[in-house]
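> tool_call: predict_assembly(chains=two)
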Amino acid sequence: MTWLVVAPILFPLLGAILAALLGRRRVLARGVAVAVCIGMTVSAVALLVQVWNHGMVTMAVGNWAAPFGIVLAADHLSAVLTVITGITGLAVAVYAVADIDRLREARGYHALFLVLLAGVNGAFLTGDLFNLYVWFEVMLIASFGMVALGRTRAELDGAMRYLALNIVATLMFLLAIALLFGSTGTLNLAHLHVIVSSGQAEGAVLAAGLLLAVAFGMKAAVFPLFFWLPASYHTPAFAVSAIFAGLLTKVGVYALIRVFTLVFADQDGFVQTLFWPVAAATMVVGVLGAASQTEIRKILSFHIVSQIGYMLVGLALLTPIAVTAAVFYLIHHIVVKANLFLVAGVIHRYCRTNDLALTGGLVRRAPWLAVLFLVPALSLAGIPPLSGFWAKLLIVQASLDAADLAMAAVALVVGLFTIFSMIKIWNEAFWKAPPDGAVAVTPSRRDLRFLCAPVAMLAVLTICVGLGAGPAFDLAQRASAELLDPRSYARAILGDFMVLTSNEPLGAPR
Amino acid sequence: MTTTKPDRYDVWVMATVAISLAGFVVGLTWIPGIAASDFPTVDWPWVEGLGIDLAFRVDGLSLLFVLLITGVGVPVLGYAAAYASDGAKRRRLCLLLFAFLLAMLGLVTADDLITLFVFWEATTVISYLLIGFDHEREAARRSALQGLLVTAAGGLALLAGLVLLGAEAGTFRLSELPAALADTDPSDLTLSLVLILCGCFTKSAQLPFHFWLPNAMAAPTPVSAYLHSATMVKAGIYLMARVHPVYSDHELWFPVLTVVGAATAVWASIQALRQTDLKLMLAHTTVMALGTLTMFLGSSSPVAVAAAATFIVVHALYKSTLFLVIGVIDRRTGTRDRRLVSGLSSVLPMTAIAAFAGAFSMAGFPPFLGFIGKELKYEGALAIAEEPGLVIVAAVAANAMMVAIALAVSVRSFLGQPSDVDAGTPPPRLMVAVPLFLGLCGLIFGLAPSLIGETIVQPAATAVLGMPAEIKLALWHGVNLPLLLSIVTVVLGIGLYFWLDRITLGLDRIGARLPVSGDRIYDAVLHTTLDGAKRLTSVVQGGRLPVYIGLSFAAVGLALLVGAVGDEAETWSAIRLEPLEPWEIASLALLAVGAALAIAGRRRLTALCGLAAVGVGTTLVFLMHGAVDVAVTQFMVEALIVVFVAAVIPKIPPFESIRRSVRERVARGLLAAFVGLGATLALLRLAPPVDRTITSFYEQMSVPEAFGRNVVNVILVDFRALDTLGEVAVVVIAAFGAFALLRGRRFSRGAE
């Protein structure tokens, strides 16, 4: 069963090779992408079931036991994130059939897309800090390739900004690894936890921790390091920006959560002090940025930033319910945000623009699109009973449980602005009569089928997570419990090694 | 009159009417059970981990609202079907109204705080869609947005309040709250009370959140009639009644509700007198009625609560009647200006009857239900022991203005000289029949008040008070103080009516000079916020990549510096620096010169050479410390970079940022020095690793287990092969990307 842990990485990687070899046989390449995503989703679901029933699944790559070799490890959080990656990937792969033009396909869109997914899953599943860096690099190069595919001026401009700022983040990640390895002599996350929390490795651990926070923070697009995201997410093809919006920043959030609940756990108040202001400021600045935009994808991009702030409330409070809230938010957000970018693409198909001043009349021209927009938009705005409501409720409850009224107030007011933004899009694109000189084209039936099926699928998923919030909450709660019990994580990965080497007696699990 | 054949859209309309009617009938069958405290309940677990259930329970208060929602809903749906001429529009209107009806039903029957909130938000969203029904009109969109923002803001406060309340009680179950909170110190509930009241006040348009409701009159008439008589705005009233048993002992409950309610009632009556648009006039009286209800719910006196419960029914009936009447007037004459319409009884005789029935009930004339409601209100006001003066004055003043407005709607519009406004079309029969039916209900219940007294009002009051209340509704209570107050009210009201035009003019003049109004404050807040957002964003996200990179590096430097300095001073004193050898000084000098050149160089090539010098300096350091293989690799990389970049430089267009000012160069230099300082300090803190297990494992296992003599190679291809796999992927993509980029360039040139 341990092979389940590597399948979500191997499937897309092999698929990418196949897609690259298929070259100009575009239909086959699309088929490969869709098939790989289906396979990936199925194997990820199997992995999640395995984790749910039997606990963490680990695999020592090359049979070199941890911490000597690289270990892949799936706990509830990792497993569920690979499932969501698979589903989002599938939606985007189908959407891409009608969205990605011949030129972009010829330039290797499908291969890059699959490599990106491999990188994302690798990052979610690895139990090794340097290996995490490698997957970040894989994601970076693949995503850069994807933003630059179109080669229009706007796209290249966005791609440059994306690359320049992400390279800074990646390099800082590398420097942090060097400092951490220099201080502790290990790269395995579980082993790092054991050494760092034993308190023996002083050295540059704190500097490395802060540097990791900066590097991952840039990847996650937190305030004040989010510049690259609104500067680049509105330029590439819609399928590309959708997969980015859904997954890329969330890998940064995942890395933050993983590292700061595992490696830097037990550091009294350090994590909370660091992330409280970051979370609050990210929420507020992001949402105000969105309120000032008039282009759909720019609005949505700033909302990514804002919602990353919500997820960081988990680290800012670091209580079981807060981490549960963060995990729930993460799951909800990936699905909904990717979906909204996909809808933005469909709107673009109808109006040839995403500028709200030039759109209008869609509720008449495409009433079903209005419904497909409203579901994820209201979910993002936290309207019950959709998934976003529970995410918001959990954040509020976590803040109030921690007697942190300020955080609760920030979360709620930001929620109001989110409603405002979504309604702005609705008002301008759907309700308003089309302005003079507005372009009105109707996409072909074939295109609409490929564009809307994934949108509908993700919308249904949002509704299901909302109505079936019970199981989703249980899952998030399990993930949270695991995250806040790094000892058990370390024991599961290191096994006998931990008992042999750790100078501190381990005692019973807390 | 035209009769049209039912079309395919009518199937939907009929279905919604039939289901709503069925709901009403089911509600009726519950009456005996609920009177015997046998409450219908439904209970599904939802999020068990949080103790949230999808739970419903119908007690007396819920039943009152269920019957109102469905009882007014069915006629309004019928009216809406006649109102909308276009089939698709008719279907949309009826489906939205029906969705709203369902959401309201969920809201008033929910027994779980979170379930209640789910439906609360549903009503907010659906009312947004209804208010903005004529969405191509700018005013409709603005009003819809305003209503949504105000009620959603209140909704968020409400959510926080409900979560706090649930946490304090240890349960989200509404029916269990009073028992669970019996021993709680009331001061622990203050915050949740304030937050919940924010939700109620926004939804029920209390001061200072009252302004959205009149604007919401942009909606089609059936929507206004439904939302503003029996449903939406009553949700806040419902919730206040619902949490009455929990909070009525709290020291804030009585003063806040009484003062806010009284102020709202008086303010809204004055506003109503200002209006010339009949519909807007009614909208303000709705706010007035809501204020009165809030005021009465502040009290725990059984009579006051009974007055509130009765008035909810009274108001729902006459307000829906009058709104629908105005819809008919609007359709027939093409205007809603009360100064333009008069003498309509000749063209709209049936509507005139409906209008008089509604208006007389509103004015509180016997034998209409409104009379009973008003008598009860006065009785209730007198029973509010703490503050009878304020409540009575507010009630009488507000009611007198209601009399005037009721006369304006009925007498002024329907009697007298027929006006010559005739821009409309004859309304369909159904549009006339519905208000007539609702208006006559007010008469029937007035003549036979026992129909609703013990069956509906009494169980509702019982539920609010949390103890059995005995309520008998009757037309004649004998000559008592309430009756005298009634007479005063009527006299005052008739006086106001005759002076109405002058009062309107005067109020309008004063109103125009008022510096503040809720609407203007809303606009100011919205615009200030959006302007602020724009300004903030233009600072934070200015658009210049060099600034972004600079800020990112500043954060890096800060992280390193703070991390390296840390908080333990003794670690620093333990650091011993060895003296530098001459060749080390030489390579450092090379690094420094290179760095300076990179910062100060005026040409790209100069800066590039500076960077190359830095690279070579680093290579030398590796070389001196015995890492020959690293040094060789590094040197090759540095050389290749220089070659590549130098080859590209002539091809890229000269751009502005290379001609940097001295100040900019200094700033960049300082930033570089800052990051460098941080990195240096962090590296100085690097003590030898505490744990060499892994390194020694690689050294020991390389030959016997992995069969390789070069440890670095074995690490790359065996111990950590997965890393290498990933890096290979990176290199392959980069290579393909570069290839495609170069090829693409040739293509695009060919295309041009």
